[in-house]
Amino acid sequence: MKNLINFLTLLACVFLTMSRTTTGCITPKFTIHVVNKLPSPQLKLHCASKNDDLGYKTTSENYDYNWTFCESFWSNTLFFCSLAWKNNHVKFDVFTSKKSDDCFDGTCYYEIWDDGIYFAGGDAPRILQKKYDWQQ
């Protein structure tokens, strides 16, 4: 019985490790793009999940901040970003497992413009739709 418990624990650790790295995914793999389309001053952003803080970034115009991850084994992945530009700010979910179907072909694509945040799922060609307004 003890050997079975040890084996199941080891197996769970392997699944958890594989689902958090992009090589050897056993769950769907996604790439998030947050593209700065703003003129000066630079866009400040911070993106994170419950388990992974991607840090604070300051990006110039046309910079594509992106990362790739494997969805959690339990389909409960959530990534969010906080953005600041001039006197504007916004915080929003860039990925949730519940809405993963929006990210066609495993790609979630956001463009940040002076009038708001636009989204398109999938690779090019993209049809962007406004998702969020800036808050002041």
From TrEMBL:
Keywords: Secreted, Self-incompatibility, Signal. GO terms for biological process: rejection of self pollen. Its main location: secreted. It is found in: Secreted. Residues 1-24 form the signal peptide. GO terms for cellular component: extracellular region. Pfam families: Self-incomp_S1 (PF05938). The keyword Signal applies. InterPro entries: Self-incomp_S1. Belongs to the plant self-incompatibility (S1) protein family. This is S-protein homolog. It comes from Erythranthe guttata.
